[in-house]
Amino acid sequence: MNEYVKVCPVCKHHNPEDSDICEVDGVYLGMTPSVRAIDAAASPVPPNDATVILPGKKASPESLDEHAGMDPSGERQSTSRLEEAPPVIYLDLLGTERVYTVRAGSLMGQSHADSPADIQLEQIPDVEYIHRQHARFNYEDGQWSLIPVDQKTLGRDFTNPTYLNQQKLVPGQPYPLHNGDRLVLGKIPFIVRFVQ
């Protein structure tokens, strides 16, 4: 019988296939596909001296020094390091298995041939209450924020609402996002999940 695992995209730890969070570094695994354990074991893993820098974390000079070795002549060797991952958050569509990956600067809206949205929503009940350009997600100085698009700037006279934790948001204004926030675009509810 085949055993399946989820390989953490950051630390490469093999987690049980039903895991949502990596057992080692707490990275969200919701979008990570399960693979056969035998195939995962055959794939390359980072070298033992690699410094893994988790999303949103900065490596201190001391932590990097710990991993820097010396060659036989006493000179420092270079240490391979994984680059800091670009920040992402996930939006869990309530009542479904759908999870949307949101990157800094992403625009979310209803799917349409002329929609400029990076994340286009479709085949969801009440999707007609989402604008083609509904909300933008920004990341600056370690903080995520959401800005509902002011439809008047696009020549429209109406605005389908956006709610954050049951508070109706003013279009065009930024609002900070936190892990576990409840976000409703039009009538479509999401839970905000941060990579920890």
Alpha carbon gyration radius? 21 Å
Task: Briefly note the CATH topology name of the largest domain.
Answer: Tumour Suppressor Smad4
Overall number of structural domains? 3
The name of the CATH architecture of the largest domain is Sandwich
Total DSSP E strands? 14
What are the segments in which pLDDT stays under 50 over at least 5 consecutive residues? 45-83
The helix-strand sequence is EEEHHEEEEEEEEEEE
Strand order of the largest sheet: 5-4-14-13-10-11
How many helical elements?
2
> Structural class from helices and strands?
mainly beta
Report the biggest beta sheet as strand number plus sense, adding barrel if it closes.
6 strands, antiparallel
Mean pLDDT: 76
Name the shape in a single word: elongated
Q: What is the strand content?
A: 25-35%
Structure description:
- With 196 residues, the chain is mainly β.
- The chain folds into three domains: 45 residues, no CATH class; 35 residues, no CATH class; 107 residues, Tumour Suppressor Smad4.
- The protein contains two helices and 14 strands, in the order βββααβββββββββββ.
- A hairpin with a 2-residue loop joins strand 13 and strand 14.
- About 20% of the residues have low confidence.
What are the defining features of this structure?
14 strands, mainly beta, 196 residues, Tumour Suppressor Smad4, 2 helices, six-stranded antiparallel sheet, 29% strand, five-stranded mixed sheet, 7% helix
